[in-house]
Amino acid sequence: MPLMSSLKILGLGAAFITVGLKGLDWLLALHHRPGRGSRQPLNEVLFFPSLPACVEHLYNPDRSHSCACPLPHGLNTSFTKLLEHLLSACVSLDICLFSFSNTELSRAVLLLHSRGVRVRVLTDRNYMAITGSQIGILRKAGICVRHELVITMHMHHKFALLDGRKLITGSLNWTLTAIQSNKENVIVTEEPELVRPYEREFNNLWKANDPAKHLP
Length: 216
Ligand SMILES: [Zn+2]
Hints:
Shape: globular
Helix content: 25-40%
Number of helices: 7
Bound molecules: zinc ion
Keywords: Hydrolase, Lipid degradation, Lipid metabolism, Meiosis
Strand order of the largest sheet: 1-7-6-5-2-3-4
Mean pLDDT: 86
Number of strands: 7
Pfam families: PLDc_2
GO molecular function: RNA endonuclease activity producing 5'-phosphomonoesters, hydrolytic mechanism
Distance between the termini: 102 Å
Protein name: Mitochondrial cardiolipin hydrolase
CATH topology of the largest domain: Endonuclease, Chain A
CATH superfamily of the largest domain: Endonuclease Chain A
Family: Belongs to the phospholipase D family. MitoPLD/Zucchini subfamily.
């Protein structure tokens, strides 16, 4: 084989190998790209106050509804997003709240309870008794509620854990005033490094406030 032809063949071979390796790099990068194969954890920030909007469709997602209420329909607000996240719980819902008087969020919690979701509520002993508090309604429905047994400080947390993997937390109490009239923030996250400490805190508070341990 003449020398020039051999060099050309060698050059062509090297070009194919280079293209091949680049293709392999591209495939590996594609495979390891976040969001492909390994799903990115959910992170969402919601700010309040939220515009009033109809939320009936969130309770009946399969039914094409024709709601006649006076609220605007089809709006995607901070509150509809919050409610949508809450209703996504399938197995468990752990709520740790200072004040809970919002009837729409209470309706969602009752619905989850009726679906068989294990609901536990930790709340503030004084605030659970105020007018409009939903705690008594949740208790009557058979939901397990605990409050601080030794009152040395307020139970001032505002967080919820869904299925042990989604955390909802921020400044927002679950009250109509907070939702419609206050400047508030909420973070919804599935970051395990954030979810796990909240899970531990909830379980510690739940155990520490077990009424069975405080019998005389
Ligand atoms: Zn409506």
